[in-house]
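[step 3/7] inverse_fold.run input=structure_tokens len=221
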């Protein structure tokens, strides 16, 4: 009698387990074949798209110029009206630089601590960080002509990078695309000797396939 009761309980236990498995599988299968409600297709709203470039006099984001010198830090918002006033103490051909800035805006940092911002051992005169609004860093302790040459160098990087993003292609840092922009950007400054008296050396770097363009103080005097 006890043996038969034991068998009955075992059979009952197995039956309960099988029933639980069947219920679980049925629930999963039912969910797979369950018809989900179709969501209505919403028309996209006509929201303005934030772009890196902007039309003159129409600011999308505020750009700034930051000057760091001997521990002090001065930050000003750049506008088309005050651009010349703020940059004239540090650069030449400011009207031309203003036109370049209006086409492709950037934040400008003129600093005597450029090595700290760069964070590497390599000595540099300027560099660019690509953000929603690119940030360009220029070494403070240099002649105005030299700083202008370095700034245009970084603007060439900015434009070649933006072209690569638009076309979804990879480019070399100082490759053909960069050199093409350098030739375009420097051409107005090489028409005569107003800005760069030793323009032969500058033209050489822009015309021939040098590895990179690195102006030096002798070329900018």
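[step 3/7] decode complete -> sequence:
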């Amino acid at each position: 009698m006890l043996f038969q009761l034991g068998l009955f309980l075992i059979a009952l236990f197995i039956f309960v387990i099988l029933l639980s498995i069947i219920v679980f599988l049925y629930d999963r299968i039912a969910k797979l074949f369950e018809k989900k409600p179709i969501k209505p297709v919403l028309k996209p709203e006509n929201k303005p798209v934030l772009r890196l470039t902007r039309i003159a006099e129409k600011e999308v984001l505020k750009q700034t110029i930051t000057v760091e010198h001997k521990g002090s830090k001065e930050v000003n918002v750049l506008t088309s009206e005050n651009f010349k006033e703020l940059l004239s103490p540090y650069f030449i051909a400011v009207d031309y630089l203003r036109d370049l800035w209006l086409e492709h805006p950037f934040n400008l940092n003129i600093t005597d601590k450029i090595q700290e911002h760069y964070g590497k051992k390599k000595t540099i005169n300027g560099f660019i960080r690509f953000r929603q609004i690119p940030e360009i860093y220029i070494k403070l302790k240099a002649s105005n002509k030299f700083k202008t040459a370095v700034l245009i160098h970084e603007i060439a990087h900015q434009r070649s990078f933006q072209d690569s993003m638009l076309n979804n292609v990879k480019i070399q840092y100082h490759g053909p695309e960069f050199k093409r922009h350098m030739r375009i950007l420097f051409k107005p400054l090489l028409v005569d000797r107003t800005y760069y008296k030793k323009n032969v050396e500058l033209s050489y770097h822009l015309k021939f396939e040098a590895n990179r363009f690195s102006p030096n103080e002798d070329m900018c005097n």
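[step 4/7] annotate
Residues 63-220 form one domain.
The radius of gyration is 32 Å.
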